[in-house]
Amino acid sequence: MNAVGTGILFILGVSIFSGMLGAWFSQKLKVPQVVGYIAIGLVIGKSGLGLVGDQEIAALAPFNMVALGIIGFLVGGELELAAFRKYSRHYATVLLGEGAGVFLLVGVPAALLLYWVSHSAPLAAAAGLIFGAIAVATDSSSTLDTLAEQRCLGPLSSSLPAIVAFDTALAMALYCLGLAAASPLIVGDGSVWMKLGGVALQLFGAAALGSLGGLVLLGLAKWGGAPEKVLALVLGLILLLVGVVAVCRMNIVLASLSLGFVAANLPARRDRKLFNGVRGFSTPIYVLFFVLVGARLDLLRLPGWLWLVIAVCALGRCVGKLGGVAWATAASGANPAQRRYLGMGLLTQGGVAVGLSLLAGRQLESVVVADGLSLGDVIIYCVAIVTLFSQASGMPLLRLALRKAGECGRNITEEDVVAGLKVRDVMNSDVAPVLENMPVSELIDLFSERDFIIYPVVDGQGCIIGTVSLNGIKHVLNDKDSWNWLVASDIMDTGVSGVSPVMPLGEALDKMKSLRFEQIPVLSELDKRRPLGMLDIGVVRKRVQKEILRGQQAARAV
């Protein structure tokens, strides 16, 4: 099929649909979904079937910018200053150690190799600065997903989310500084100071626009409305910000990260559902983003020296992360689990790194290195392939680190507690059934004195014949004359629904949910006519929360 003649809608459909199939296959192989996205891109792109060519990639560039905006917004939402203030000394030391280690061990060898290839000192220096900065970034989404999947709790898993988030912020800062230093070296003529001023204006402008957008977003969130309307406003604001920043040739990731950061950290009340809604909506755009990254890679035509640069970047990043974290955790007196295994949890690279490489590629596409490749192409190819390698190897190492630290399966959830209980463990047996001949006047007193809103009604032999509820007596409340001659059997509901004491609690709760009951009678397993007590969903919730708290306290004490 001719790539030029292929419709954009067809490309969108093929990319997203096949990308999701690739993610499903990756999950079966227990590797990150990003690996499946990029692999599908390799199959349908330049390295494979050729369904997606340069023209289609250029036409779909706006989707890449939208994806970068969403990625930056979600990363900014993870940068909570409260967490950094709480562990500032420890986090700052770790960030300094691994950030400096990666920046030097990736940037210096990459610069030397590109000088050997291009014989241009400015080009090599610029490449080293940008490669070193991008390599610092760690993938937050796959790390958080793994922590949730493994139900982790402990010093290592508690520190990883904050360190990963601030890792990305550090990478952004280094990238901005590196690009500011690199641009005057290799791009255009004119005064160095003017070019530096232009770069600084672009960076500060992006941060300012994003921060302003964050203030607007908080105002819109206060205005409220249905969740889907708020989500539409958020997405519209992100698209507007991305459009303005793109026209002004500013840094999209920095602007959207500032938007998310301000929205997550101002004193106004934060709503995590806002970020969760954007995360749920972003899936197809995220899939398309990584599929297109894979589609633009032409692995069969990459020169040997570029593979050497890729190998040096991958190796330098691993050694820098592991060595820098080892030094930093020892220097800061970190927990033993963090000293041994934290470095293994920071090896993945994801959307932010790829996004920064695309931004750098757009700005450096006119700087030719060798073999017809621009510096922008070199950065994009290297970062994409290193990301593929880091996802495939980094996630298993993260899982191994969590298992070695003994933190898997320790984050007790509501589902865990419910699965381990039966109805008899949480039922209230101190509920006397109502006799069928009890006057309504006594029923009203009973309901006013007790918390239950439903009672089983029994006959003279103690067998259940129905239930009486607060709703059932409402229609007689205004007719006081009837209180003394109406009895429970006159107003009861004869349809009896109950649960067994040996029934799993989860099954009983599902039954109550389907019936829309807050309370339900518990009937004897041997004689289903005999009420033994009541199951109250409010009591269940309190018991479950206590068990969760007890389990988490025990896990932290280990």
Describe this structure in words.
By secondary structure, the protein is mainly α. It has two domains: 60-295 and 305-411, Na+/H+ antiporter like fold; 415-551, CBS-domain, CATH 3.10.580.10. It is built from 25 helices and seven strands. The chain has helices at residues 8-28, 33-44, 54-59, 61-78, 81-86, 88-118, 121-135, 140-149, 155-186, 192-223, 227-247, 252-265, 272-281, 283-295, 304-331, 336-341, 351-363, 375-404, 414-419, 423-426, 440-449, 470-473, 488-491, 505-515, 537-557, and strands at 368-370, 373-374, 434-435, 454-458, 464-469, 519-523, 531-536. The strands form three sheets. A three-stranded mixed sheet has the order 3-4-5. The chain has a two-stranded antiparallel ribbon with strand order 1-2. The longest helix is centred in the first third of the chain and has 32 residues, at 155-186. It starts with 7 loop residues before the first helix and ends with a helix. The model is unreliable at 1-5 (pLDDT under 50).
